[in-house]
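Subject: for your reference before the review

Hello V.,

The reviewers asked for a structural picture of the protein, and I figured it would be easier to keep everything in one thread rather than splitting it across files. Below is the amino acid sequence we used in the manuscript, unchanged from the supplementary table.
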Amino acid sequence: MTPKIVTIQAKSMLGMRLEMSLIDNKTGELFQKFMPRKKEIARTVSPGVYALQQYDFKSFNPNTLFEKWACVEINSSQEVLNGMETFQLNAGLYAVFMHKGTTKDFVKTMGYITQAWAPNSAFIIDNKRPHFEYLDAKYLGPNNPLSEEEIWIPIKKKSDF
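And here is what came back from the structure prediction:
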């Protein structure tokens, strides 16, 4: 699994957030609240949805609390809707992996990224920036083995340190 290395520009996001841990995972609850309201957002940049979270892989364990967002990229002129918030995703370098399979299989993909790819690459994971998944028409649901989603991991070049 070889990632694409991509530099993104800053993005304005609009959505909802919840605090959770992997043990008390509320991702389903978050997306059940957000997805029916997504159609109210008039000025989206792309049709897909972002699952965005920030956590430190070095000290991360299943009980660690983190904030997770269900959001879309918006034009800066989009009004903030009642019950939603904005988030500014800063520009930066990302490694983009394609995950194919169920949510249950996601753990294997993340294990590969953090335990095999990252230590042997020319990059380090940048824990000061959010990690996110981008879900578009190829995402067929959490239990569908044909489902596809992009995993965006913030990185820095090892040579910069």
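For the response letter, the relevant points are probably these. The longest strand covers residues 11-20. The chain is about 20% helix and 40% strand.

Happy to draft the paragraph if you're swamped.

O.
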